[in-house]
């Protein structure tokens, strides 16, 4: 019998030395679906470049994987053992680039490192790269380790259960669903249960709608948990000329408090969009004088528009 369910795409990222582990991830996902999909109305769809990528000219292989496969996924599971992979234009390997790109969008990433015995013919250089990457992320995130294939199977299934119970599985397209909610109280409750990226996309979808203060406050509160998303949302509003929008003033005040770096970046962009609005905010004293903002402050001091410096002929 058919039933409605949310489908979450799970991207499997790894070098080629863990092919067996990749199949285990697929097996665990399908087992979870068989047991839970109907009762929880959730389906996990395993995705990988080898099964979902198609030939195309005009892009590098990694660019195609990023844009046509990875970006359409909601969750990433990364696995490492003895190899990091081949370097790309922007990262130490294709797998690392995928992880970094996914995390930048504030999507859920679950990383695992194998601790099983190292083979005698291991590529020492690659092994060092894996260990260096592992150390690099040690203080940035929580990762898992597994002794063998059975250990990975047990831990991954358990971790999927935990993340789903925590509500961490949220598709990025949820913003389209939220935008259709007409009851503002219901919308506020949904915003509180989603990632900042969803709030950022929702803001773009409903920017021209008449919504309650509670809705805009909920969006700004959620975006404050991710200064980069809040910054990009403010830039989006500035480009649209939405300077009198209820969320705009609350947004830049919140950004100034949670991240002066992102606030400085926002102000730098606003300077090129609308100087009147830039100086209106600047005169409120929200921008702190720091090494990061020195260049911007020097520009202001020389700006004829602001009353400093000499106008060039």
Walkthrough of the structure:
With 313 residues, the protein is an alpha/beta fold. The protein folds into 2 domains: 6-165, Rossmann fold (3-Layer(aba) Sandwich); 174-306. It is 55% helix and 10% strand. The chain has helices at residues 19-40, 49-52, 61-69, 94-104, 124-138, 149-165, 174-179, 184-192, 196-206, 213-223, 227-239, 246-258, 260-273, 275-282, 294-302, and strands spanning 6-13, 42-47, 75-80, 108-114, 144-146. A 5-stranded parallel β-sheet has the order 2-1-3-4-5. The protein starts with 5 loop residues before the first strand and ends in an 11-residue tail after the last helix.
Count the E strands: 5
Oligomeric nature of the chains: single chain
Specify the structural class: alpha/beta
Strand content: 5-15%
Spans with pLDDT under 50 lasting ≥5 residues?
A: 307-313
Series of secondary-structure elements, N-terminal to C-terminal: EHEHHEHEHEHHHHHHHHHH
| Termini Cα gap | 77 Å
How many domains make up the 3D coordinates? 2
Indicate the CATH topology of the largest domain. Answer: Rossmann fold
Q: At CATH's second level, what is the architecture of the largest domain? A: 3-Layer(aba) Sandwich
Q: pLDDT average, as an integer?
A: 87
CATH superfamily of the largest domain: Toll/interleukin-1 receptor homology (TIR) domain
Helix content: 40-55%
- Radius of gyration using CA atoms only: 23 Å
Main sheet strand line-up: 2-1-3-4-5
Largest sheet: 5 strands, parallel
CATH class division of the largest domain: Alpha Beta
Total helical segments: 15
